[in-house]
Design goal:
single chain, Spore Coat Polysaccharide Biosynthesis Protein SpsA, Chain A, 8 helices, 7 strands, disordered N terminus
């Protein structure tokens, strides 16, 4: 049984109501020189780390009150004393593999645990908010797939009501082709597309958010 499944059973034993909806959040430990590396090339490692911490706080505030069970999946190491408080967020370790395999594993664990509608987001997007996440879950009541395209050619949100293996395979992760490649996989599905949002990967991205400019020394 996966760690996700164990947590699910423990929640049942404690008589905690388990919702049909599950929000998956992919995150990583905020470490100097290991986060926002493309941005760091322009503004330095410390400034990039400060930006990342600000984005984490925003992601926490945007997700903590979402009407869904919330599960955070960490890269490399689970942190037990961080912004993702354990009384709100269940914690898991991402498996080894590329991003597609990691996401598929998280989705599959959620569906195997009994969730019907599952949405995944990252933890470093300033344009996302609770209203957008709640709307994605609402749309999953009518559509098979909900996809939030990013302006850099990727996507910032994916919602499914069943596992769809092709979505997670043979992708050029981290490139401008990911969204189009994913669209080719889901063209036969009932699809809802959210508004385009902007990732924070370069200095020009900071300029669109004045609150982030304070992190440039």
């Amino acid at each position: 049984m996966t760690n996700f499944g164990v947590v699910f059973l423990q929640m049942q034993k404690r008589n905690i109501k388990v919702m049909d909806k599950c929000l998956l959040i992919f995150t990583r430990k905020p470490e100097l020189g290991k986060v926002k590396t493309r941005l760091a090339k322009d503004i330095g490692d410390q400034n990039a780390l400060d930006v990342y911490k600000h984005l984490l706080t925003h992601s926490f505030n945007s997700s903590k009150d979402v009407n869904a069970d919330k599960h955070v999946w960490y890269t490399n190491e689970i942190l037990h004393d961080d912004i993702w408080c354990s009384n709100i967020f269940n914690k898991h370790l991402q498996p080894n593999g590329d991003l597609g395999y990691k996401m598929k594993s998280a989705f599959q664990s959620a569906f195997e645990s009994g969730y019907k509608n599952v949405v995944i987001i990252g933890s470093d997007l300033l344009d996302i908010d609770q209203e957008l996440i709640d709307n994605a879950f609402r749309l999953l009541g009518f559509y098979d797939v909900v996809l939030g395209p990013a302006k850099d050619g990727g996507y910032y949100l994916l919602g499914l009501n069943e596992i769809m293996n092709p979505i997670f395979k043979n992708k050029s992760w981290g490139t401008e082709d990911v969204f189009n490649e994913t669209m080719a996989d889901v063209k036969a599905k009932n699809l809802a597309i959210l508004e385009y949002k902007n990732d924070i990967d370069h200095v020009k991205d900071l300029e669109q958010h004045p609150e982030l400019l304070k992190f440039i020394n």
